[in-house]
Amino acid sequence: MLVWARAARSHPVQSGIPRPHVGGWLEELPPKWQASRESALRERRGGDRRRAAGAGPSRKLVFMDRLLVTLVHLRLPLPLAALAELYGVDRSTGSGAFREVRPLLASRGFAVPERPGVRLRTLEDVSAYAEAEGGSLRIDGTEVQVRRPRVGRPGRKSFVSGKKKQNTIKNTTFSDDQGRTLFSGVIQPGRMHYQAAVRTEGFAEQFRRHPKVKAEVDEDYRRLADEFSAQVSPTEEAEGRGPARRAPRLA
Known about the structure:
5-stranded mixed beta sheet, two-stranded antiparallel ribbon, globular
């Protein structure tokens, strides 16, 4: 089952990434993942490890599988619970893999179509690129169900989504007018509204700095469209005239 799941998830149709590129990431990202994990464990226990490296329970998903789960979830509307089932692990394991790997992918920046060597790492980069190219951005938000924070954790209730009635995190994806992903980020707890999330990250200010930038948004960003009516327009879906194109959820 594990071998089959790994082979299926690594296919470009599901991951959205050619296998040679995935192979390159498997050389580049594991050391960064391990360093991040060790830093988190050190902070949790308040000091150095007390046992030798490798002690303790074994990981149910190796880094390759964690990477594939993340890529497929970003690419396709498959719940993490469904992907975890394919690997025979709990949903919390799939959610944990996504939370660990996604920041590593985001830190690399997003490649720009037909612009070798150019990578977008911030909302300022995205806005400047859109203004220079004269294209239109597509802004779309998604919610990912996460494990309920432990009792006593500060801000525990902030993860409860009023829309989903579940513990979630919200993510905003920016794509070009051809549906190609330029940036995916602005991650906030589920209780925060989508447009509040992009405002918190300063994206509203980007419209003031880059007056030539145009964007299409769905209903979740209606107030942003009202404030910047000359630059931001609702999609057909938001206007109730039928479904709008959705950007592919690529890493």
